[in-house]
Give the backbone structure.
Amino acid sequence: MTAIVALGLCLGWMGSFLFQFSEETINNPVAAAPPPPNILPSVEELYPYVVPPRSTLGNLLREMEISPQVVHQIVEAAKPVNDLGRIKPGTRFQLFYANQKDENSEVTGIKFYFSPIEMLEVHKVDQKWTAQKITEQVETRVMTFSGKVKSSLWESAAEAKMDPNLIADLAEVFAWQMDFSREIQKEDRWRLSVEQKMVKGQPVGWGSILAAEYENATQKFVGILYRTGENQSGYYSPDGTSLRRMFLKSPIRYGRISSRFSTKRFHPILQYNRPHLGVDFAAPIGTPIRAVGDGTIAEAGVRGGAGKMIRIRHNSEYATAYKHLNGFAKGIRSGARVQQGQIIGYVGNTGISTGPHLHFEFFQGGRYVDPLGKKFPSAEPIPANQLAQFKTEVTTHIASLPDWNEDKVGKAEGLPQQGPSSSGL
Ligand SMILES: [Zn+2]
């Protein structure tokens, strides 16, 4: 009991964040004890040999005094499954011997480790070498995290002991609702549930975010993953509308708005009042620029003050332009089709420009409009015949989200909220 109380107090002090390893952690206090020590041998222990850089497996095996004939037999046996001649440097493997304790005895097997899920085993059975691909069974479990922004979204992930890659995934879920490069505020809070892939009880990677919520001073966004068909899935609001919009909120992931849309502005280089008919995003040279919507490249080239620029025609009504680029992404030329989110070019400082930035323009019906002030149409909602099923899943998914930090400290541990806990952080 003491341990549980201590945990409760500890969480109370941390206050502004909370993480959990699984639902059991919260509902079953016993599981809150530290996990048992890892008794499985590490990958390095299991696969002690590594294909060195600028070498080949064949060379390495010969250096290990395995006869060229055996090397040849191994490579030939593996051929139907894997071309060992092209095996990547850095690949780990282990060797098996006729007498496992004697490395001078005959080599009878070799096992390659490609990933926690994929391996290849080549064994000598009855004087014949045979190869077998091994695919580990992957299980998934649901993990939940929640956090509160104190300085940045990344820091809130770190405080929640969450893989930072997942915060990027969270930003992707709400990429149509929020520009995570500029709309993050102190005191914003988020929570999510996500699939974690497990092999033999060990985590090996992340699956999809199942449900997520992001809340700021004025708005709350909820996204629920739903599969509308085979290989078709998306995030939806609990009412079944798609979070996906015709246009992304920002053409660059992380950057700062350095100048807004205005019909009158003093131009820093030209030194006179001149409207600024776009939005500037300050970002380092080379920062990737994304197409905000599906479309066709109408122009990709150099044009006077705009420097290197791209114009995308999205449909008969909408177009966007991206100026002062450092360069174009591969395949970006007039007439090429692009998809929403596709990288089309890189931030630069070409043309008339005071420093590295992206000048982004938005056109509707041929006229300049301010993209920051526009609300764009949604993608298709959940099909009517799936809505009932979706609503059932919404209930489950929302229930799977962790409680907000403050609530949990009181609720899960049955402790009164006191001391320097949940407020004011
Ligand atoms: Zn500009």
Remarks:
- Residues 259, 276, 278, 280, 359 surround zinc ion (CB under 6 Å).
